[in-house]
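Entry:
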Amino acid sequence: MAPPGRVGRKSTTREPVIQEFVSSEPVFEPEATRRDAGVSESARANRGWWDRNADEYQIEHGTFLGDDRFVWCPEGLDEVEAGLLGPVEELTGRDVLEIGAGAAQCSRWLAAQGARPVALDLSHRQLQHALRIGATFPLVCADAAALPFADASFDLACSAYGALPFVADPVLVLGEVRRVLRPGGRFVFSVTHPIRWAFPDEPGPEGLSVSGSYFDRTPYVEQDDEGRAVYVEHHRTLGDRVRDIVAAGLRLVDLVEPEWPAWNTSEWGGWSPLRGNLIPGTAIFVCERD
């Protein structure tokens, strides 16, 4: 079963967005399996995967994401309407950390609202795309489980499908976020809705039949011929996510399950209007530090 958050590898006729990068690594088809994968193996594999696939990701999804929009999920929920970080007019002057920023589209939107964002990503290549589009704010290449910031550095933190689906120990990340938040600060993050792990990652009718156990937390791993992980994604149930948030010392104040809007006719990996009208695809957790 492909993981619900897996980036599709659909063909495209668009030109590469950055031309100078040529991978020296051999092209191979990884083996998909379910097995244990720890903190360091997951981080190493996913850093490499996003560095190798950042160009394709931005070609495939850049138009949908825009250069300076804050989109929470494939359903298309926009922060302009959602207001999960708080009223737009109150973002001015706020220090905001975006985790798993990719090309920093969300940070660019935040900056346009008068906030002071910092865009962090594990992938150097993703941050090159942030530079390509333009960034008037800091870009930081670092692991979300070891944030390189002083305690109480930020008023807000956000992560749109960044970091949390790919880490073996989410409490490490959540604990780091709590550490760098100021008292009263808010952290909002979106992930694949946990129920999707029970279904095949297919946008059509085949993606509507349960194929596995929702309670099977064995990581999804793609590995090379020598058994080394090249991509890892971790499953947590809804209850797990809530317990992780509490264990990290944060308080859950809302859980948003975006409905599929009528205007969105796009497919994104396993997300589609067909599935989106029947089962949730995204879970957004709104947390605060007391």
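Residues 217 and 274 are 26 Å apart (CA to CA).
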